C-alpha cells in the first residue's frame, strides 16, 4: 500500500495569495507616494494664494486689502513640509521606526487640513492690516470675503492624511532604501573576487593595492 505524505500536497491557494499580497503592496505604495507628494504640493501652493479680501476705512474712503494663506496661518505650509519629509523617511526606516514616521505623516496631514479649515473664516490678519492702514488700533476690516484657496489647502491636507493612513496600514510590506539589501531585508551575496591575470600587470598592481597576494591561488 502506498502512502502519500501530507507535505507533498500542493497548496495553490497559498501560492496564489503571495503574488496578490505583493501586488497590493505595490499599489498601496504608489498611491501613498502620489497622494503624499501631491497633497504637500497643493498645501504649499494654496498657502501662497489670496485667501481673503476686505476693506479698511481710511480718510473717509475704503482701502481694499487682501491676505494670503501665509498671512492668516503658516501652520498648513509648515505641516506640509513636515509631512513631505516624513513621506521620504518612511522608506528609510523599518520596523517600529516606520510606524512612528507613518503616524507623524498622518498627523501632519490631519493638522494641515484642520488649520486650513479654521482659516476659512479668519479675519485677524486683515483686521491687523486695517489697523495699520488706518492708524487706529481698534479698526477692523469690512466687506470681508474669502476665496476658495483655503478649501484647496484642506484638500491637500486630506491627501497627506490619506498617505499616512496607507503607510500605517500597508507600510510593513513596503521595501526600504538600501542597495545591499533585498526586499526581505537579507544582505545580498557579494560576488567572489577572481584571481588576477598574471599576464596583465595592471591587475597585479590593483591586487597589491588591495593588500592581496597575487601569487596565491584562490
UniProtKB/TrEMBL annotation:
It comes from the Bacteria. Coiled coil: none annotated. InterPro entries: Trp_biosyn_TM_oprn/chp, Trp_synth-assoc_CHP. Residues 179-218 are annotated as: Disordered. The chain crosses the membrane at residues 29-52, 72-92, 99-120, 149-168. Residues 194-218 have a biased composition (Basic and acidic residues). Keywords: Membrane, Transmembrane, Transmembrane helix. This is Membrane protein. It comes from Streptomyces violascens. The lineage of its organism: Bacteria, Bacillati, Actinomycetota, Actinomycetes, Kitasatosporales.
Amino acid at each position: 500500500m502506498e502512502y502519500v505524505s501530507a507535505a507533498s500536497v500542493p497548496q495553490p491557494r497559498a501560492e496564489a495569495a503571495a503574488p496578490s499580497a505583493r501586488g497590493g503592496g505595490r499599489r498601496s505604495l504608489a498611491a501613498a507616494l502620489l497622494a503624499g507628494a501631491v497633497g504637500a504640493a497643493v498645501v504649499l501652493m494654496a498657502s501662497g494664494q489670496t485667501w481673503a479680501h476686505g476693506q479698511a476705512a481710511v480718510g473717509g474712503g475704503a482701502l481694499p486689502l487682501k491676505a494670503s494663506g501665509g498671512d492668516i496661518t503658516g501652520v498648513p505650509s509648515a505641516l506640509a513640509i513636515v509631512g513631505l519629509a516624513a513621506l521620504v523617511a518612511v522608506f528609510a526606516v523599518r520596523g517600529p521606526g516606520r510606524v512612528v514616521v507613518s503616524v507623524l505623516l498622518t498627523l501632519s496631514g490631519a493638522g494641515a487640513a484642520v488649520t486650513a479649515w479654521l482659516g476659512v473664516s479668519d479675519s485677524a490678519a486683515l483686521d491687523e492690516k486695517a489697523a495699520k492702514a488706518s492708524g487706529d488700533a481698534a479698526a477692523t476690516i469690512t466687506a470681508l470675503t474669502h476665496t476658495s484657496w483655503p478649501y484647496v489647502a484642506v484638500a491637500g491636507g486630506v491627501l497627506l492624511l490619506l498617505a499616512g493612513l496607507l503607510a500605517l496600514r500597508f507600510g510593513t510590506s513596503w521595501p526600504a532604501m538600501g542597495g545591499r539589501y533585498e526586499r526581505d531585508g537579507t544582505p545580498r551575496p557579494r560576488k567572489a573576487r577572481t584571481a588576477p591575470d598574471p599576464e596583465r600587470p595592471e591587475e597585479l598592481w590593483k591586487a597589491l593595492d588591495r593588500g592581496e597576494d597575487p601569487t596565491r591561488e584562490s
